[in-house]
Design goal:
about 300 residues; alpha+beta; Aminopeptidase; Glutaredoxin; 7-stranded mixed β-sheet; 13 strands; about 20% strand
């Protein structure tokens, strides 16, 4: 589908106040986050950010930006970088994920291609979806996130994760530290709730808002938008409910007290926490856009089972 297709619309500064934000249609609980998200988008539009959605009251959209204006810790000069790609619930199975991705690929122009952070994790498109559509996995972080790349022309340079994102560590090594961008409507509410849980467990809490693109591009969470760190290590990028975060913290604290209970003295937060569970606000079925049958773009073979 192309720009003239009436099924899809691109949000713009002139229309954003009258349009819903797909990722937060729910009630008043996240209203502060919705307003912050709209402000984030309005600023981003000035630097080439695109927010394209299905013209329905549903969660079907893609958000991407030129790498120099992308809020992700990805080093990808002259690429486009995907922030989010969602197709939810009853809209799956209609090739909408492919249509949205095609729109981004068609926008490459003279750029080298498209990059995206992916994984089998909440808020991220499944790596298999990108593989199915001609992307290649060019890097995996120490915390289990994949950097995917679609190169529009032979010989294009390969993007990479920022060193900080590859390691997933921060200098704040005492208690729980949160780093965040008001890019997701769930951030204000979840940040308050998760901070309260950490304090109730007797942990010190610190926050750092990542206010500029240049700061986010050096973030320690590959997701960019959010990261929760325990004693300096990334334990989740997920915006969690209080009960879920309490369970996660209690489990991580127990591992640190008894590091040999799982057969190793090394605490591996990538395998133990970052890939588990679904988000209470984001059902699992929203996380991975459908994968369409047929030959993937770019003529690349399928790798494994690409269906989600």
């Amino acid at each position: 589908m192309h720009d003239c297709d009436p099924l899809f619309v691109n949000l713009e500064s002139q229309t954003i106040e009258t349009e819903h934000i797909c990722c937060a249609i729910a009630g008043a609980k996240h209203q502060e986050g919705v307003e912050r998200k709209k402000a984030f988008l309005s600023r981003g539009f000035e630097h080439g950010l695109v927010f394209r959605k299905l013209d329905v009251r549903g969660k079907v959209f893609i958000e991407y930006a030129p790498a120099e204006a992308a809020w992700r810790p990805v080093v990808a000069p002259d690429y486009l970088v995907i922030h989010c790609l969602w197709v939810s619930g009853r809209y799956q199975g209609r090739s909408l994920g492919r249509e949205l991705l095609e729109h981004c690929l068609d926008a490459v122009g003279e750029r080298h291609g498209v990059a995206a952070v992916s994984g089998r994790k909440p808020y991220l498109t499944d790596t298999r979806f990108y593989l199915h559509h001609g992307f290649e996995r060019v890097e995996r972080s120490d915390t289990g996130f994949d950097l995917m790349c679609y190169r529009a022309r032979e010989g294009a340079p390969v993007p990479r994760l920022a060193d900080t994102a590859r390691r997933g560590t921060v200098p704040q090594d005492d208690g729980v530290h949160f780093e965040f961008v008001y890019q997701c409507p769930f951030v204000p509410t979840c940040l308050r709730d998760m901070s309260k849980v950490a304090r109730e467990l007797g942990l010190s809490v610190s926050h750092r808002e990542l206010c500029t693109v240049s700061v986010v591009q050096r973030a320690a969470s590959p997701f960019g938008t959010f990261g929760a760190f325990l004693h300096g290590r990334l334990i989740t990028h997920e915006l969690m409910s209080p009960n879920k975060f309490r369970t996660l913290l209690e489990r991580e604290l127990e591992r640190r007290r008894c590091p040999h209970t799982r057969g190793s003295a090394k605490i591996n937060s990538a395998s133990s926490t970052l890939g588990q569970g679904t988000n209470d606000f984001v059902p699992a079925r929203w996380r991975h856009p459908e994968v369409d049958s047929g030959q993937p773009r770019g003529g690349q073979p399928l790798l494994g089972d690409a269906r989600c």
